[in-house]
Design a protein that fits this description.
The complex is a heterodimer of chains A (258) and B (293).
Chain A: E1 7-18, E2 21-32, E3 36-40, H1 47-54, E4 62-67, E5 70-71, H2 77-83, E6 85-87, H3 100-107, H4 116-121, H5 124-141, H6 160-173, E7 178-182, H7 190-205, E8 209-213, H8 217-223, E9 226-231, E10 234-239, H9 241-246, H10 248-255
Parallel strand pairs in A: 3-8, 3-9, 6-7, 7-8
Antiparallel strand pairs in A: 1-2, 1-4, 4-5, 9-10
Helix pairs in contact in A: 3-6, 5-6
Chain B: H1 2-16, H2 23-41, H3 49-76, H4 84-106, E1 111-112, E2 120-124, E3 127-130, H5 131-153, H6 155-165, H7 167-172, H8 177-203, E4 205-206, H9 210-225, H10 230-252, H11 265-279
Antiparallel strand pairs in B: 1-4, 2-3
Helix pairs in contact in B: 1-8, 1-9, 1-10, 2-3, 2-4, 2-8, 2-9, 3-8, 5-6, 5-8, 6-8, 9-10, 9-11, 10-11
The chains are: A alpha/beta (258), B mainly alpha (293).
């Protein structure tokens, strides 16, 4: 079922401690290219810390993180983003006072190259670049039909589900090779969550590798090609959803407590 | 003029929530660089207003921007993420350091600033409008408008606003926070330099410590307009400037007839600050505060 192609992202013995707490401990992981990989685990099992390590917000104390053949641990977040890793946050972190379209344009920031002078002098190249960026942002917005007609809306006025969608689009605006989604269905009702899963598959079908944190087992069963279970900062087991969900440790530590 | 200086405060505050107390000294520095350029050009064929003033503004804005970036790099960046009080104290230290450095370099005396554009364009009784007055208002409005356009319409302006709202999320979008903060200091300091030269042209003298009072008043203007809000800073600057001249004038006129009030011009400005902080701490355009830059 999960026939891993060349991994787009590899973690080797990645460790991050906070004081005496081992948030992530000797974690190794290969994320197969072009697939959806789900990470499950109870609260506090280190899933979000793992995302923060991959995206450069934290630097691991040990181990290495290799993205498309290139070590990225220790790189600052904006560099990691430029190399092709985009993410969303568990508690949506949009630029709430800005327009939907502006949020997407910030997402494209790294691809727009005109510098301060070009912008100041409003050179022809700068104007052309801004216009094509605006055009691609408008096209991107069509990915979610629910967002039709919202591009001049201030983000804080959107519904919760639509803010989630905008955050995903802002991440996609950077044209990442790898998209990290931190509990994208959190706070959504089951209908919306089911719809979101189909949308995540559409993202994969555009050629973006997806790494997805999910707390809810039923969500991940419908979408992940490959599942990794974590507990107390360590990998418990990985494989197909069926393999992982039948694993006794997963049943005990995770399903049992849910 | 207050508007221009207030912009410097509000820009920086909007992005990194730091009150850059050294901004007043940045303004003084800008004025002295402008004076140096004018002095260097004096007696050359370029000394006419049409060539000397643009040269003074451009050179001074560029050099002062460099000072602003250096200041941020050494006095503020190492403290980013530390307690906000630390950065505030560092800002006070930077202010005192710069003021004393300028005193040593230039001396304690007021330096005369060459007069330009002093011909009247309109004269009706006591009312005299000089070219300079129009130039001052025109340049202030132009710079404010350009800055507004820049922050609203360009990629870097968007990056500035995104950093103001959520640094970490901005980083994840590929925005370099350090580069963005540096650009903020470039813009704020360049505006400050322009204000410094305008101040010199207007009053005809500059002094190493002129930035202190000017800075505090501009800070008042920024608070008055709603700190962190660019348009608020401009509105606050104009309101402060006008009330500072108008209120004493009114109080000196017949119904009140207290001519001594002119000696208390500064008290008017700070009275306004205290009043704003008591009545509406978020400022005139304060509702929009999160809009920031």
């Amino acid at each position: 079922m999960s026939a891993p192609a060349e991994p787009v992202l590899s973690l080797r013995d990645v460790t991050k401690h906070f004081g005496g707490v081992r948030a992530v401990n000797r974690m190794s992981l290969d994320v197969p290219s072009g697939a959806i990989t789900g990470i499950i685990g109870p609260n506090g099992s280190g899933k979000t810390t793992l995302f923060n390590l991959i995206s450069g917000i934290y630097e691991p104390q040990a181990g290495e993180i290799v993205f498309r053949g290139r070590p990225i641990h220790g790189e600052p977040p904006h560099r990691v983003s430029m190399l092709g890793v985009a993410r969303t946050f568990q508690n949506i972190r949009l630029f709430n006072e800005m327009l939907v379209i502006e949020n997407l344009l910030v997402g494209m920031h790294a691809q727009l190259l005109s510098g301060l002078w070009a912008a100041g002098l409003r050179t022809r190249r700068f104007i052309a670049e801004e216009q094509s960026a605006l055009q691609s942002a408008i096209e991107l917005l069509e990915f979610f039909p629910e967002l039709a007609g919202t591009h001049d809306t201030v983000v804080k006025n959107l519904s919760y589900a639509n803010r989630r969608r905008v955050e995903i689009l802002r991440a996609l605006a950077a044209r990442p090779a790898l998209l990290l989604l931190d509990e994208p269905a959190a706070g959504m009702n089951t209908t919306e969550a089911a719809k979101l899963l189909r949308d995540i598959r559409r993202i994969r079908d555009r050629g973006v590798t997806v790494l997805l944190i999910e707390h809810n087992m039923s969500v991940i069963s419908g979408v992940a090609d490959h599942v990794v279970a974590m507990d107390q900062g360590e990998k418990v087991v990985e494989g197909s959803f069926d393999e992982v969900s039948r694993h006794p440790k997963v049943l005990a530590s995770y399903l049992g407590s849910d | 003029m207050y508007a221009l200086v207030a912009l410097g405060y509000t820009l920086v505050y909007g992005i990194i929530e730091l009150i850059n107390f050294a901004h007043g000294e940045i303004v003084t520095f800008g004025a002295f660089v402008g004076l140096a350029v004018l002095a260097a050009l004096a007696g050359t064929p370029l000394s006419a207003a049409a060539t000397a003033l643009p040269a003074a503004f451009l050179v001074s804005m560029a050099v002062t921007a460099l000072l602003g970036v250096t200041l941020e790099r050494f006095a503020y960046r190492p403290l980013r993420g530390a307690d906000r009080l630390m950065a505030l104290i560092s800002a006070l230290g930077a202010s005192i350091f710069l003021m004393n450095a300028m005193m040593l370099a230039i001396g304690r005396d007021s330096k005369p600033f060459p007069a330009y554009l002093s011909e009247p364009v309109l004269q009706r009784g006591d009312l005299v409008v000089r070219q300079l007055d129009l130039f001052l208002i025109g340049l202030t409005i132009l710079l404010c408008a350009l800055l507004d356009l820049f922050v609203r319409r360009t990629r870097i302006g968007r990056a500035m606003r995104s950093v103001a709202q959520d640094q970490e999320a901005a980083r994840m979008c590929g925005v370099s926070v350090n580069a963005t903060v540096s650009i903020t200091f470039v813009l704020g300091s360049a505006m400050g330099a322009a204000a410094g030269i305008l101040n010199g042209l207007y009053y005809g003298v500059i002094r190493f410590d002129m930035g202190f009072l000017l800075g505090i008043k501009a800070f008042t203007a920024a608070v008055l307009g709603g700190i962190g809000n660019l348009r608020g800073a401009v509105v606050g600057g104009f309101v402060l400037g006008i009330s500072e001249s108008l209120i004493p004038a009114i109080l000196a006129a017949p119904p009140f007839s207290v001519p001594e009030i002119f000696d208390y011009k500064d008290a008017v400005a700070f009275g306004i600050l205290i009043l704003v902080l008591m009545v509406k701490p978020s400022g005139i355009l304060g509702e929009e505060v999160p809009e920031k830059a």
